[in-house]
Amino acid sequence: MKRIGAVAGLAALSLVLAACGGGGSSNGSTTGGSGGGSGEGGGDVSVVSWWEAGSEKKGLEALEGVFKKEHPNFTFKNAAVAGGGGSQAKQKLAADLAAKNPPDTFQAHAGAELTDYIDAMQIEDVSNLYDEFKLKDAFPQTLIDRLTVDGKIYSVPSNVHRANVVWANNAVLKEAGLDPEKAPADLDAWIADMEKVKAAGKTPITVGMAWTQLQLLEVVLMADLGAEGYNGLFDGKTAWDGPEVTKAIEHYAKIMELADKSYLNEDWEPAMNPVISGNAAYNVMGDWAVAAFDAAGKKYKEDYVAFPVPGTDGMFDFLADSFTLPVGAKNVDGAKAWLQTISGKEGQIAFNTVKGSIPARSDLSEEELGKFGEYQQDAMKSFAEDTIVSSIAHGAAAPVAVSNAMNDACAKFAQGGSDVAGFQAELAKAAEPMSK
What we know:
- By secondary structure, this protein is of the alpha/beta class.
- It folds into two domains: 43-161 and 320-370, D-Maltodextrin-Binding Protein, domain 2 (3-Layer(aba) Sandwich), CATH 3.40.190; 165-311 and 399-435, D-Maltodextrin-Binding Protein, domain 2 (3-Layer(aba) Sandwich), CATH 3.40.190.10.
- The chain contains 18 helices and 15 strands.
- The strands form four sheets. Strands 2-1-3-14-6 form a five-stranded mixed β-sheet, covered by helices on one side. Strands 10-9-11-8-12 form a five-stranded mixed β-sheet. A three-stranded mixed β-sheet has the order 7-13-15, sandwiched between helices.
- α1 packs antiparallel against α14 (345-355) and α17 (400-416) packs antiparallel against α18 (420-431).
- The relative contact order is 0.22.
């Protein structure tokens, strides 16, 4: 498997994260400079994403507005596909790419998720646009390293997300005799707190469909293995069938036993709603969740709190939404114009203030930083200071085939939840392609 930058993880960032950049491709004429001109040509620009609901849809609409202003010669065509945290979009995309009928640009998680597209020569090297739009100056070097494959860059990030976040309802915690301002020290303490919530008559934790289960599993692995041990899962230094992973799966099984099973086939937002409404205590979700709390009129620290999954303090579980330039795109200039917008300052500020993520640039002014909420300010600080590890569930750490197989293993385990050995064996088998 090709190495995707620092897929197995990186040391702490040396730059404070803040804002935005541009994008591009390796063939065809280029758009205007990084200042946001109208670009060459015109026509429809087909953009595939899975941002079809909630804050994600609002974020896409915000980007569309900036795109129309910066590139009026082009017409944005929303080809978003809903469902499964992107799984439906990826399935349709795979069919279109195989039929050599690509969109002009498509969303993909930055990192190992791009491996299959690169190996199949389905996406272009866009390194030249990093030079044209001066993105190597705008993005932290650690992010550039994470995006680089064999000296080339194949996507442009619109944001950075953190996945190892617990969202908790203050009122529910207080009802159980817990202090919202005091996060549990480790997984055992957190499980003990969940038992107290259960005894108080409320749901301890909600978990959604398979990809959210895999996200929960990865943060439990982080908590029990530490950053170095977790990173070792992707370079062969930590055995998936080893005793450290067994301990983590046992913790995961206990948490799943305390989860409300009625949400196991739901996407993240329905599973988060009980926490927002005060019917459940906890949910583990990426920081796109902050927008759902905002939409419900809930105040950070007043109505809810967010903290690193117990045992992962000092780690930042990284993922980033990015866009590519497919080989054979019909409107190359239009795709480049989109890549410029999603990485430019105005585009990233418009998008991330709505979506709850943080920008991929490190060159925002104090005034620009002030447009972001308190949680995002905290996340920017963490991204700058913490040890960065890569998400399995969101394509940064593992290729699509691996994460899909692990999704299936999680879904199967959720239905029974007792065969730890069998679950671990399935995870180890799913991880085998990463050792080749």
